[in-house]
Amino acid sequence: MGRGYIVEDVVEKYLSNLSVPGASCVTGLFIGQSSSQRDFVVLAVRTPQKDTEGQGSPSVSRRAGNSLEHLDVEWVTEHARQVSRMLPGGMSVIGVFLVTPPELSKEAQNTLRRLIFAVDKHISKGRLWSLTEEDVTEKVTLHICSKTRKVVCRTFDVRDPKSSAKPADWKYQSGVCTSWPLLTCSVGLNLVFPVLEMHVLPQDMEKCMKEGLQTWAKQIEDGLCLINGDAMPGEVELLGGQKKNAKAVQQTFRAQILIPMAEPQSERRSTASVKVCSGSLTLKGMVQCRAYLHSNKPRAKHATEVIKRDVINTVSSRVEIFLEDLLMEGEDKGSVGVQQGLPRRVFAPVPGMSLCVCDYMFPDECVSDVSDRLKEMLDWETPEDSIDTSQEAVPEAPTIDLKDAVVQKNLKAKFTLDARPKTPSEDPTEAHKSHKTYYAGVAMAAAIALLATGTSLIYLSD
Fold first, then answer.
1. Phi, psi of 236 (to 5 degrees)
2. Would you list the domain boundaries of the chain?
3. How many other C-beta atoms can be found within 10 angstroms of the C-beta atom of residue 72?
4. pTM over the 0.85 mark
5. Which InterPro entries has this protein been placed in (predicted)?
6. Which regions in the chain score pLDDT beneath 50?
7. CB 257: neighbour CB atoms within 10 A?
8. Which residue blocks in 330-417 are alpha helix, DSSP H?
9. Contact (CB, 8 A) for 115 and 25
10. What is the pLDDT of residue 73?
């Protein structure tokens, strides 16, 4: 027997209501959480339609006829990355689905295999945290015949390029995530990145910032996580002492991450190297984080893991947004003292569940923009008054300061870090021109500092 999947009954209703026009098909994503024993699926989200010469069409062109060879894999994977950035810690894209007419059923399994490997590769590209031995690398695929409604569930190990399909157990259940514990945290940022040249391209800036983030991400992973002020042993059950028959109630835990001090010189050899710098980038501000943990005997080490990964994902995503914005502006960002506001995190409830997703609202945006994005990306209506915009106050929202260096644009360079699937009303030529099309995922961090004096920056390394 393969892996077991416990699936919210709202997913069954969602899939049964999907319409498949003509001879085309529908693709989409499964969102949930994995554990060592079983996986939990809480949401299904179909891929938005792609605009083709002013006419909406599914992710498989009608010209494909009786074949799935022309399925737009790039479109599906980009949607998956956008959705993954809107998920709080602990939740992720854990699978894909495909709804086809009967005549395309024979091709479905090969197509799903191609999709799930591409989706995982696209989402994990640039990821700064490391997988552990306990991470589940099997992802689920589901094929549904649009006529007979027959369902075929298979899994693939995305870490093994030669992985073959394995059967899986797919069961619907109500209230799957009702009692999932919620972890919250807020942290002040003060990250400094050196700029080695007076005139730099966004590609160069990306390299220096990601190098600094990799060092910082390792510190986060090695940091001590306190839960409700206590340093819990990893194997301690987070919900220990709770009666099995007790009414399911969501518990909230407060997390803190402490960065260890440098080891004594007697235990660690360090050398100093000096690099001449022309300026610096400083990422600072107050950010908020939320993470969810499944209620199947969650342990403290799992809670620590999801909150730390939430930290790393948020900061790296916001840096990507900043770098992309440099390219999209089309003019020099300037010189000393330029400050750019990063989007602040807002939260929106998942209809009928005790979970929230997130989006990022830029300074010149309003709540209606967030509501529109939730509809486009996640395929549900969100009342504007239900969106919580209070978590990251505007005066304390993250910013990036650029000092001394001048950023040169190279609009011909291939530097597209992100591209939101556009609505049918958008002009395809405008798809990559607005920074508002970029979504970061999760937000929280601890401070990291690099010491700078004059034009020299001192690094400590082994």
1. -70, 135
2. 4-51+66-172, 182-239+249-261+278-342
3. 18
4. no
5. ODR-4-like
6. 53-58, 60-64, 245, 331-336, 410-462
7. 21
8. 367-378
9. no
10. 95
